[in-house]
Design a protein that fits this description.
There is one protein chain. The protein is of the alpha+beta class. It is 11% helix and 17% strand. It has a domain of 60 residues. The chain is globular, with a radius of gyration of 16 Å. It starts with 14 loop residues before the first strand and ends in a 20-residue tail after the last helix. The relative contact order is 0.22. It binds zinc ion (ZN). The site of zinc ion (ZN) has 8 residues, from loops. The site of zinc ion has 8 residues, from loops.
């Protein structure tokens, strides 16, 4: 595995990303737009990371259970409304 920023192979082992406290409710999550009224907002726990030992870039990623759930539901996920310009232009109106 290489650093996506500088190409270094010197990445740290996988660690846990935590916010100010260690409470599970404060874990980092990747959330998407609510798919409809009364529907649960899709969210996936993304509290694992590796760091580049040369540049310090941080690469967060999903836990395996959440990765599988994201993969299974990816086709129905909606971007958040204030996502800004799409760099790929894929969602241009
Ligand atoms: Zn790097």
């Amino acid at each position: 595995m290489r650093c996506a920023i500088c190409g270094s192979e010197r990445l740290s082992p996988v660690g846990e990303l935590v916010l100010g406290s260690e409470r599970p409710v404060d874990r980092l999550r990747l959330r998407f737009r609510r798919p409809g009224f009364l529907k649960r907002r899709p969210a996936f726990q993304a509290d694992l990371a590796r760091a580049c030992r040369d540049r310090g870039a941080l690469f967060p990623f999903l836990r395996e259970l959440d990765r599988r759930e994201l993969d299974a539901t990816a086709a129905g996920l909606l971007e958040i409304e204030d996502a800004g310009p799409d760099p790929d232009g894929a969602n241009a109106n």
